[in-house]
Design a protein that fits this description.
The complex is a heterodimer of chains A (585) and B (165). By secondary structure, chain A is an alpha/beta fold. Chain A contains 24 helices and 17 strands. Chain A is globular. In chain B, a hairpin with a 2-residue loop joins strand 3 and strand 4. Chain B has two domains: 65 residues, Arc Repressor Mutant, subunit A (Orthogonal Bundle); 85 residues, Glutaredoxin (3-Layer(aba) Sandwich), CATH 3.40.30.10. Classes of the chains: A alpha/beta (585), B alpha+beta (165). The complex binds flavin mononucleotide and FE2/S2 (inorganic) cluster.
């Protein structure tokens, strides 16, 4: 019997202390039968660090929130097979349900295989789809047909049919073509691409090789953002292994198919996620988008036909080839096929990665899988699609997850970030947050985006600072339309969405800020009024001692008072008051 | 007035292997800049001039590319670079409080470096660990689920370690 302890070591596991756990276990297991292994991210980020106990490759127990001081008990249990000493670490059934409700295709191996071992990936089926194509004589056209039947659409945001792009690149004239993977993942709140690369790099490589075969590319490039050092390292390692094993390079699997691989680290610019800006960046330029057409399929990297897909898109490809396009298309809705990965974050109880068939409702994902709002808060909205998307309110929680249905709400599927917000979030300042982001990330090439986002940001800043004026809402709407219609690339065209969608569902909050100079969520500090309830105040002086601007006065054991003119509404007095005497309204 | 760039004296020989490998490869400017920053910790002006000269670009173009990307710095950074995330998830989960704690404790502004040269502080967008928000990264190590108290502990640990050395 073989016993193995696998420590989840994606970036999030490591941040939670997984390496320390592994380091504590290593000496304790030395010389014993029990093996110690590394796996990637299973997506249950709120339970990290996670250690899985395998017996003959079957999961026997999943241990959660493991700390180095648990190592001894775990090592003991693994050696003896008696788990009673670690019963408290074993995952609770309601937490296991998080995974059981999912259907995993893109994430199928994440958290299960060792991301640094080709053997481990091969045992899980890596490169068998490529083998099937090359050994059964499937032509590139056959491959494209399977992808067409599957209905796979781009997971990077726009949701464009993958087969169509592949076909266009295939049919473009010329020998020199490029296949590019977009791993720039700039949408704040989305991290599925990182998880796939860190946890299962060979699935990405295989998907890209199949894409390269289909379009006729001899070179494949992965553009990864520099903020993902671990992903870059594991991918480099995987490319090396795959090359040695004959999956990359000349005459792959002893056939005529040849393809080289290369990683390019991004340098930090959100707009480089846009495909033509990404190409500019690959060429060593400022990452400013190009006018389309021509599309990259006709003229891309070095003006050669190029195809760009997202990481998650590629992660589905090998599965589709192995299982058939029909199997993928059998899942989902009329409009959207297969599964989609979502990154559940924010005020959610169970935050992590969720892969579900299209067609589930937002409510199912957020409440059934994600467990609803944490710390007893009330659901207010979910932000989808990041800076290009919008906020969906509680009244639309039964919206079905599908490209068209989500777009109808004013949000978008986007890359799959779902940031859940509770009633402590001010929607006006959320809109401002996104416009701060796009105004900063606007590359400056076109006027509408460069100046339009700046003006929107200024108006929103004014409103959150209590300087809003009648007519601001109408002015923003006009500006939003102008920016959307006039911008060169997707960044500018979608930058108004966070404003328009919050205006659509939370107009009363904007009005409260502008007319009543009031922030209903109590977060816009300039609009707050802080006072002390004389009945509750015991005169402990904690608030006065902690006030950074000395705005609080009062004698010991007497009710204190706040000088409203000096107060900067920082809320520190409320945080330190033990008697709940500070009122913020 | 004398040109600023002549005042700087970086050891340009350190850059030669990078230039030898990439200068002639089309499209490598960003890669060269990344290597240069790894070597010098930032991009000194004389280094930028040298890169321009060897890659056949004008200095303006090299600087134009370098300033486009947030990764590149033009001032030396502290020994520890604190990158605090203010992406959507971290923002919703209170990154502003963490930022305030760091700034108050170290007396640094966003983008600044402490007087002792130990810490630089920079607010960035999404580090990709959103489920552990709020998140920060110090020299490549990620710390998650932060509270203002924890941040101070982490900073104090680093200071103690440095003082001991
Ligand atoms: C401002 C902007 C940022 C984008 N960022 C990303 C990104 O980080 N990752 C990504 O895969 N696609 C991103 N996209 C979408 C890409 O332009 C492109 O549509 C996508 O990579 C194509 O791959 P797919 O068809 O597999 O989705 C972005 C688009 C825009 C306009
Ligand atoms: S939003 Fe902070 S790590 Fe993603």
């Amino acid at each position: 019997m073989s016993i193995r302890l696998a420590v989840g070591q994606g970036s999030c596991g490591i941040a939670a202390g997984a390496q320390k756990v592994a380091n504590a276990l290593r000496p304790l297991l030395a010389g014993s039968e029990v093996q110690l292994g590394t796996v990637g991210c299973i997506g249950m980020c709120w339970l990290e660090p996670i250690v899985d106990l395998y017996e003959n490759d079957t999961l026997k127990a999943r241990l959660v929130r493991v700390q180095p001081n648990h190592a001894e008990a775990i090592a003991e249990a693994a050696k003896s097979g008696d788990l009673s000493g670690i019963a408290e670490l074993v995952i609770q059934p309601e937490d296991s349900a998080f995974l059981e409700q999912q259907t995993r295709i893109a994430l199928r191996n994440c958290g299960i295989i060792d991301p640094e071992s080709l053997e481990s990936a091969k045992a899980a089926g890596a490169y068998s789809a490529l083998g099937k194509i090359l050994s059964t004589g499937m032509t590139p056209e056959d491959v494209i047909e399977v992808i067409k039947v599957s209905g796979l659409a781009g997971r990077g945001g726009a949701g464009f049919p993958t087969w169509f792009k592949w076909n266009a690149a295939r049919q473009s004239a010329g020998d020199e073509k490029y296949l590019i993977c977009n791993a720039d993942e700039g949408d704040p709140g989305a991290f599925m691409d990182r998880a796939v690369i860190e946890s299962d790099p060979h699935t990405l490589i295989e998907g890209m090789l199949i894409g390269a075969y289909a379009i006729g590319a001899k070179e494949a490039i992965v553009y990864v953002r520099a903020e993902y050092p671990l992903a870059i390292r594991r991918l480099e390692n995987a490319i090396c292994d795959a090359r040695e094993a004959g999956y990359i390079g000349k005459n792959i699997m002893e056939t005529d198919f040849s393809c080289e691989f290369r990683i390019k680290a991004g340098a930090g610019a959100f707009v480089c996620g846009e495909e033509t800006a990404l190409i500019e960046s690959l060429e060593g330029q400022r990452g400013m988008p190009r006018l389309k057409p021509p599309f990259p399929a006709q003229s891309g990297y070095w003006n050669k036909p190029s195809n760009i897909n997202n990481v998650e898109t590629f992660a589905n490809v090998a599965w589709i080839i192995s299982n058939g396009g029909e199997a993928f298309a059998a899942m989902g809705t009329e409009d959207s096929k297969g599964t989609k990965v979502f990154a559940l974050t924010g005020k959610i109880r169970r935050g992590g990665l969720v892969e579900i068939p299209m067609g589930m409702t937002l409510r199912q994902v957020i409440f059934e899988i994600g467990g609803g709002i944490r710390d007893g808060g009330t659901f207010k909205a979910v932000q989808m699609g990041g800076p290009s998307g919008g906020c969906i309110p509680a009244s639309l929680l039964d919206t079905v997850i599908d490209y068209k249905k989500l777009a109808a709400t004013g949000a978008i599927m986007g890359s799959g970030g779902m940031v859940v917000m509770d009633d402590s979030t001010c929607m006006v300042s959320m809109a401002k947050f996104f416009l701060d982001f796009t105004a900063k990330e606007s590359c400056g090439k076109c006027v509408h985006c460069r100046i339009g986002t700046k003006r929107l940001q200024e108006i929103l800043t004014r409103i959150t600072e209590g300087e809003g004026q009648e007519g601001d809402i109408e002015l923003m709407e006009e500006l939003c339309n102008a920016v959307r219609d006039g911008a060169l690339c997707g960044l500018g065209q979608t930058a108004p969405n966070p404003v328009l969608s919050t205006l659509r569902y939370f107009r009363d909050e904007f009005e409260a800020h502008i007319r009543d100079k009031r922030c209903p969520a109590h977060t816009c500090t300039a609009l707050l009024h802080v006072s002390i309830d004389a009945e509750k105040c015991r005169g402990c002086t904690a608030c006065a001692r902690n006030c950074p601007v000395y705005a609080i006065s009062g004698a010991v054991k007497e009710p204190h008072e706040i000088n409203a003119d000096a107060c900067i509404h920082c809320g520190r007095c409320k945080a330190v008051c033990k008697f709940g005497a500070v009122i913020v309204e | 007035m004398q040109c600023e760039c002549t005042k700087q004296k970086s050891d340009l020989s350190l850059l030669e292997p990078v230039l030898a490998e990439y200068a002639a490869v089309p499209g490598s400017l960003i890669t060269i800049l990344q290597h240069a920053q790894e070597i010098y910790g930032y991009l000194p002006t004389d280094v930028l001039y040298r890169i321009a000269e060897c890659t056949g670009n004008s200095p303006a173009r090299v600087l134009g590319v370098a300033t486009f990307y947030t990764q590149f710095r033009f001032q030396p950074v502290g020994k520890y670079l604190i990158m605090l995330c203010d992406g959507t998830a971290c923002h919703v989960n209170g990154s502003a409080r963490i930022a305030a704690a760091v700034q108050e404790y170290l007396h640094v502004e966003n983008g600044g470096t402490t007087e002792d040269g130990l810490f630089s502080f920079s607010i960035v967008a999404c580090l990709g660990c959103c489920s552990l928000s709020p998140v920060m990264m110090i020299n490549g190590d990620t710390y998650g689920s932060l509270t203002p108290e924890q941040v101070l502990e982490i900073l104090k640990d680093i200071q103690a370690k440095e003082a001991a050395e």
